[in-house]
Amino acid sequence: IGERVQHWLLVLVPRLFLALFRLVSPGSKRPKHLPPIRNPLLTLSAVQLAEKIRRREVTSVEVVQAYIDRIQEVNPLLNALVKDRFSSALQEAAHADKLIEEENGGEEVLRNRFPLLGVPLSVKESFALQGMPNSGGLKSRSRVLANVDAPPVALLKRAGAIPLGVTNTSELCMWMESNNHLYGITSNPYDLERMCGGSSGGEGSIIGGGASVMGIGSDIGGSIRMPCFFNGIFGHKPSKDVVLNDNQFPTCSGLQNDYLSSGPMCRYAEDLLPLLKIMAGPTADKLFLSKEVDLKKLSFFTVVDDGGSPLTSPVDRQVIEAQKRVAARLEADLGVTVKEVSFPQLKYSFQIWDTFLALPDKDGKPPQSFVELMADGGSVWPIWELIKRTFGRSEHTVAAIGLALMESSHSSKPSQFMLKQKEELQREMEDLLGTDGVLLYPSHPLLAPKHHHPLFTPYNIGYTGILNILGLPVTQCPLGLSKERLPLGVQVVAGKFQDHLPLAVALYLEKTFGGWVNPGVA
Q1: DSSP-assigned letters across all residues of 59-78
Q2: Helix or strand or coil: residue 197?
Q3: pLDDT per residue as tens digits for the range 53-99
Q4: DSSP state of 180
Q5: Residue 138, pLDDT above cutoff 80
Q6: Three-class SS of residue 287?
């Protein structure tokens, strides 16, 4: 009875506030959609661009300039790229072209030494990119510039990639919408009145809008996968301990580094594996990225929802139908059986995620509090910030203030029940997947919501966050558009260090369902 009462309260109260929010929200007079992509260079994958540049069919300068032009065309609408380095990028592109002209060893030598030579790249602002802002959307860090490159950024640059700039995040990278009071709010390329996700939302928006071909994101609760879902692109959350998380802000504390993954985001599935291989560096040997995958020999499973948690929204019917279409095509094309399964522990996904992010490290030291991160060496009182926010005087977003208030209600001791639920789920999931299993799971219960609407549905992060706690590799795959012309998609999950399996499935799904859809012609 208590659960039923809680369920109806959690359903009706947010819906009431959401209805009031819609009533008082001002309408927008700006256009809802992006202009179409006109330059054919913008519709090639990073792998294809690198090959054309090496073969001198096109210059790196031409490619970089094409992306600069597209950014200048759409970024005033998206607000995705928050600081550019266009002048430096063009100089680096000219240097790449010169290197190609002077190389006597041929195309193969260039491919081995610089697999991404001359290809432009966008970078999430929370990653250190030398000379670029590294604020994590915090106003007090507006003048902080990175003096080093984060390891995966350095590896991509070493492979020849050329950063165009850094992209927007949610405040302190801990919310589902990329909005902060330093850079503002980022919009969805398929509908500018809707959110792009977070915290790697700037990446999702600029890539989905055809203004970047590849990027780098981080994910501690869905921060790669949600933006990829909402913006109709591919993304991969690697297995834990594969890509180094150093030189990011905010930094991890407690056991958070166990749950944070850095990975690639891109429009074309064929770019995922080479990007991951480069970003992982020597750790890529933990994976089986060179191993051929025969999809017909895999075991496929599908989970349609979290089992009816009272905290989360019901899964949109179009999301469910898209996942069913995937299962049907797998069975028809490959001759496999996609078995529907369920895990009762998924009902507690948000609580498990929330519990484990708050655990102390191996020495018993608790993670740095969200309030401390907000304060950035100063002092912040959440209640006072909420009052100031009411009058438009706070430097912090409503989402950040809300997270700080929620944190203050946490128990000092973790719930033994939630610890047990996680252990049971981990064991059952790993036993099911083994080394040849792949599982389909909804990316999010809702299609890309309107701006600020996640304030009323904060627990929906459980659909992605639980997979961080389990440490499993997940590839987010687009599946076309809904009747509202918004991206559909699905999470493809595999066992630990079996990243090659969902990456192979991503290639199949792109071929079968079309992959990224140009928002300019949506």
Answers
A1: -HHHHHHHHHHHHHHHHHHH
A2: coil
A3: 999 999 999 999 999 999 999 999 999 999 999 999 999 999 999 99
A4: E
A5: yes
A6: coil
The total number of residues shown for the chain amounts to: 522
Per-residue exposure over 65-85, b if at least 16 CB sit within 10 Å of its own CB, e if not: bbbbebbebbbebbbbbbbbb
Query: Distance of CA 7 to CAs 13, 309, 347, 411, 463, Å?
Result: 10, 8, 12, 22, 18
Rounded Cα–Cα distance for residues 411 and 359 (Å)? 11
Any idea which residues carry the catalytic annotation?
A: 124, 199, 223
User: pLDDT value at position 29?
Assistant: 60
Locate 186 and state its tokens: 């980022």
> Can you tell me the distance from the alpha carbon of 172 to that of 350, in angstroms, rounded to the nearest whole number?
19
Query: In which band, very low, low, confident or very high, does the pLDDT at 150 lie, cut at 50, 70 and 90?
Result: very high
The DSSP secondary-structure symbol of 145 reads B
Q: Which two tokens stand for residue 370?
A: 């969200």
pLDDT at 33: 87
Question: 488 exposed, middle or buried (CB, 10 Å; 0-12, 13-18, 19+)?
Answer: buried
Is the confidence at residue 242, as pLDDT, over 80? yes
Torsion of CA 438, 443, 444, 448, to 10 degrees: -160
Single-letter amino acid, residue 241: D
Evaluate whether 271 touches 115 at the Cβ level (below 8 Å): no
Written as one string, the DSSP assignment of 372-399 is HHHHTTS---HHHHHHHHHTT--SS-HH
Q: Omega into 366 within 30° of 0, i.e. cis? A: no
State pLDDT tens for residues 296-307. 999 999 999 999
Torsion of CA 128, 132, 166, 153, to 10 degrees: -40
Residue keyed to tokens 């503002």: 184
Number of Cβ atoms within 10 Å of the Cβ of 280:
25
Letter for the amino acid at 473?
Answer: P
| Geometric angle at alpha carbon 520, from 516 and 522, rounded to 5° | 65
Q: What is the pLDDT of residues 174-216, one digit of tens each?
A: 999 999 999 999 999 999 999 999 999 999 999 999 999 999 9
Give helix then strand counts, H and E, for the chain: 17, 15
- Of 245, 306, 261, nearest to 499 by C-alpha is 261
Which of 346, 507, 497, 342 is closest to 434 using CA atoms?
Answer: 497
Identify the helix (H) or strand (E) that includes residue 262: strand 261-266
